[in-house]
């Protein structure tokens, strides 16, 4: 099986080199895009980063250079540290569960069942709905009244004892939000895994079956290793999405009850627009951006190292 | 159909030229539209002031043919975000909502300190602002906002629900507990609380604190400013204990932290709940939710068993201000001058169920507010507490700690310590 993998890999590498050949286009072809990128992304980001070292309120001209004071305040800020904890918990939950469900869905609709195309559409459908719409929909589902939403459904199937204040209970609210995000985004992970599955050569499965490999053994030794690129993309995207999660939280809980669902993104938003501390908010944003970049680089380095080709 | 088969190069250029011309014409049409809207005064108001502000603008437009406006409204929670972003970007509307006093990022003091509001002190109506309310309108002796009057805070109640339980509006804390008990036994939720909506969390504290704090210590705010008092060592602790007592006795709807303002409003309007502690400015929303407007009344929410100590919260309602960068400042100044006329003040105040700032003769007041008028006349009304808080962090901290208290995640002392920490932070 290793020999087959190596041979197919060499062919793929040759094909890749062929695609990369030819005349290199002049660099200035990229200039318009680079100018737009610099104006729309780089300049505002760098200009904004400067505010992290000031006490600017976000309105007016008054601002004083305060050095690293905002960053010192950040490490002492209980609300920000609580938000960091919530952000990490949410991210881990989303990365693990969303990708786990996405993989299972992809494996399910990659079989020969008749309704596989319809199921793919159904599972992917929540992805194309606006996160705000999904949040309001689930806010309705999570209505704490015993005769509404999820609680009414639980009651109807004889599980009334499981009724909860889904978004109002500080111990539960974070996981209720996480579930909503996973519900919406699992279809996205499914599509990426599905693309990976389409690239797994059938011949490898057939030869493994001839060698007597069972379903689980084929998944473990053929499918899973060859899904590594799809896994890299999925883990990367869900990690960045989890670390920067904002819309669903603001729409569903506004960070509450209390501070129970605050994340770094909601904290920086509140600091800027509710507390009127734009400088401090920018410091939080800067730390968040560096944190997300660091996690992404480490992740991509590790995940790429285990990728293989068919 | 491939392009090179059916369209010559010349034809293609003609088509492109036509498209460009059409685009130019379309753009001209667009410019015409925006030119017409370019003469409009851009106004963004708070949702709770819609009835009064819209009426005043429309009446002013009728009397001034050269005046036109473009009006939009935002709910309280979104106002801070949208308007602050515009203020920060330097493209604020000419006339916009501003909260009186201090204590929020969109308050008069915070915005005037940033030089974002125009000084209105030269307008005649500013001389009529009652002395006790000047702090809500003025910073450093200059007037920056117009507001039509004061809103009171108390219990909005469903008369039919009270009648069904055979109870009358209570005058003392003990009577309130008895009323709630009777309502609960009748199967009616005594008090609807939509604490998932952040600003609603503060209202019961605001209703109780005038009795537990200000009746005994009228200069409490001055003491706080001077650093000689704290939330934790004041009647605020008593107020929060009472808030929790109502919850422990089961007088709120189930799961208040998961219930929104809109749901609570509907509960009172339909009689599923008997009352909600609210500001009179939102009375219309409750009336909209009730089968008939007369089903609803208001009474001062009692905080103590000594009737004389049961003061009420009565704060200046959200006002309007002229942006310091407005290019239509002359038109806006004329409009604000018009708002300051006693008849406009009265009409606006009536539309948003508040007590007019001043009036010529007897003011027209919504009948449901009559139980509150003796308190205003006897100087037993305290401005909404946040209006004298020194920064925009205390109020959201209050929202959060109340949700934590209702969720059983903190104690009254820890909650008040957090508020004290927020209060001591610089503005």
Overview of the molecule:
The complex is a heterodimer of chains A (310) and B (427). Helices cover 69% and strands 0% of the residues of chain A. Chain A is mainly α. Chain A has helices at residues 2-20, 31-51, 69-76, 78-109, 116-124, 131-141, 149-156, 173-198, 202-210, 215-226, 228-243, 247-252, 264-273, 278-305. Chain B is α/β, with parallel strands linked by helices and 427 residues long. Chain B has two domains: 37-148 and 317-358, D-Maltodextrin-Binding Protein, domain 2 (3-Layer(aba) Sandwich), CATH 3.40.190.10; 151-315 and 381-424, D-Maltodextrin-Binding Protein, domain 2, CATH 3.40.190. Chain B is built from 18 helices and 13 strands. Chain B has helices at residues 3-6, 9-38, 50-63, 76-89, 108-113, 134-137, 159-165, 173-185, 203-214, 220-225, 235-248, 261-270, 283-289, 329-339, 342-351, 373-377, 394-406, 412-424, and strands spanning 41-46, 69-74, 95-98, 138-139, 142-143, 149-158, 189-191, 273-279, 296-299, 312-316, 319-322, 355-356, 381-382. In chain B, strands 6, 7, 8, 9, 10, 12 and 13 form a seven-stranded mixed sheet that branches. The model of chain B is unreliable at 1-37 (pLDDT under 50). Classes of the chains: A mainly alpha (310), B alpha/beta (427). Chains A and B meet through helix 13 of A and helix 4, helix 5 and helix 17 of B. Chain A: Keywords: Cell membrane, Membrane, Transmembrane, Transmembrane helix, Transport. Chain A: It is found in: Cell membrane. Chain A: This is Sugar ABC transporter permease.
